[in-house]
Amino acid sequence: MQLLLAALVVLPLLGAVAALLPAPPGLKGRDPDQAVLRHGVTVTGAVLAAAIALAVGFDHDESSRMQAQTDISWIPALDIRIHLGVDGVSLPLLVLTALLTFLCAVYSYSSPPRGQGTSPKAFVALLLVLESGTLASFAVLDLMLFFLAFEMVLIPMYFLINRWGGEDRERAAWRFILYTLLGSVVMLLGLLLVGIKGGTFDMVALATDNGAGLSHTTQLIAVLAIGVGLAVKAPMWPLHSWLPDAHTAAPTVGSVLLAGVLLKMGTYGFVRIVLPIAPEGAHTFAPYLAAFAVVGIIYGSLACLALARTGAKGDLKRLIAYSSVGHMGFVLLGIATLTPTGVNGALFANIAHGLITGLLFFLVGAVKERCGSTDLDELAGRTGAALYGRAPRLGGLLVFGAVASLGLPGLAGFWGEMLAMFGAYEPAEGLSRPAFLTYLAVAAFGTLLTAAYMLVVVRRVCMGDADGIGAGAAAGGGASDGGTPSGPAASGPAASGSGAAGTAPARALPDVRAHEFAAWTPLVVLTVLAGLWPAALIGLSDPAVQQLLAGGH
Q1: What is the pLDDT of residues 320-355, one digit of tens each?
Q2: How many other CB atoms are found less than 10 A from the CB of residue 347?
Q3: How far is CA 409 from CA 301, 328, 419, 448, in A?
Q4: C-alpha to C-alpha distance for 442 and 437, rounded to whole angstroms
Q5: What is the pLDDT confidence band of residue 381, given thresholds at 50, 70 and 90?
Q6: Is the pLDDT of residue 429 over 80?
Q7: Are 413 and 407 in contact (CB under 8 A)?
């Protein structure tokens, strides 16, 4: 188990180095590009197998205890150690990261993103470095190692957006890295303050002390500094503005990983670092965190509703990005309650959001490939997508993702949001119950707005007029990830004929392909299973959450 967790973190790095060799060892293909893409599938598949083996070997009866630990002195002068471990909080996130990265590799094998002056070697190497950094963020138990892993993911994601992204990709990539770097600088100051004042950078030791070695003032400063860095990555309103641009410009796999796992690093940091290490500071700032969270829920939902109804800059990827601001608001609200119910709900919502939003971004990428655009006006009007009639399986999956995202009971999206609101109903002792009841009411209204905009999207995209200009789009082909569309949607009188000229008959779009079926099916199945059997995740996280909130005692 100890070696398994270490291998989980190191294997993607070794695979990234191998991907840059003249020929990946042991693999062949029609050409070098196919060989390196196959290498990516192989390495990420091995990492997923290791993550599953780790989950199978994990002692579920002792999920509050750190297991598979590696603890090696690295920089003795600063007491920085290579300390790895996994408990019931981090294990689901490790498996989710390994799964989504593998599915992205499978998807990219048959639909590789295209960029100017780029190669599959660089793409696969960056994908594996990104996976390693994300896995390390959830596995390390040293504050300085956490910071290094937290920063490690920025460079590969920057290049994935900048080199393989779509329109306005350079601006989006720069906004992404500048926002997150500025937040990280502030976070580093807070981590150093905690380590110096607490006498150690070890997260387990600091959590066990439960802030005993930190004065009230130190905790306030530390929570404020660390919280800013984590809130940028979460993303919390109003520090979210980098997210819609990054998602809109990113290639499909970049959006899947950004929403599916990178956003979780921020909320995980709140649970792993802020709550147990600086409890007094967390208690002081909890009402403000909850207030920002519910504003984010309403803001994200209203932005999505405006995009869905008016079509002003109505990019479907942008809409789903704004929906993430709202969904992550529920996660932050659950954390702000400082209760086991709320924090368990936040952790569950993390996993549910990764599964559902990952699926939605895969589907939007497929729509763009087929229709040449993700603009809602074109999909609903000029292109007449009407996915139900022209690609029924794709349309059905989009509806499934939409109803899962709006929190339909029986699917994964329901439980996390419900538990977060339950936590707000009875917040931790010392927090203002009237204030949190107000936050609960606002969050509940946000769920209605979520249902509204998702149903509008379903109506416009899946139930639109199948006899519009979409025939021209289907005939012209689609668009690859990033770069320019290979067959933009047709326009003009010939395509939109009406009256005496008649309407051009809609042509069927390519429905779900084999590699798409392979990449999307696990997300659908897990979304259903998590919705029907929430105890599998909550039973795993609850003992660990109880111990973290109690200070490790």
Answers
A1: 888 888 889 999 999 999 999 999 999 999 999 999
A2: 31
A3: 19, 19, 13, 14
A4: 9
A5: low
A6: yes
A7: yes
